[in-house]
Specification:
90 residues; 5-stranded antiparallel beta sheet; single chain; alpha+beta; 23% helix; Ribosomal Protein S8, Chain: A, domain 1; 5 strands
Length: 90
């Protein structure tokens, strides 16, 4: 089973997008400010492997991805969508 993106929402931060997904990526909220602490979380690890990702917030039903200011959204958004389409849900 993979994640289905129901919608992508803008946030007040222009360097962050909220991906509303099904199934839920887990009931336990988790936040990562860098890749090393995400090493035990396969979903977070896969998203942090994408160039430009600097922060993740994973919650019940959504994932907020923050990028560096110099990273353009179009390519990164497609890459995040690709990870979610391939990643196995818990």
């Amino acid at each position: 089973m993979t994640y289905t993106i129901r919608r992508v929402d803008a946030t007040p931060n222009p360097n962050a997008l909220k991906f509303v997904v099904e199934p839920s990526p887990g009931p336990t909220p988790r936040s990562y400010r860098s890749a090393p602490p995400a090493g035990s979380d396969p979903l977070a690890e896969a998203i942090f492997a994408l160039p430009g990702v600097v922060n993740l917030l994973i919650h019940d039903g959504w994932i907020t991805v923050s990028k560096s200011a110099e990273t353009p959204w179009p390519a990164l958004r497609r890459a995040v969508e690709g990870v979610l389409a391939r990643e196995r849900a818990p």
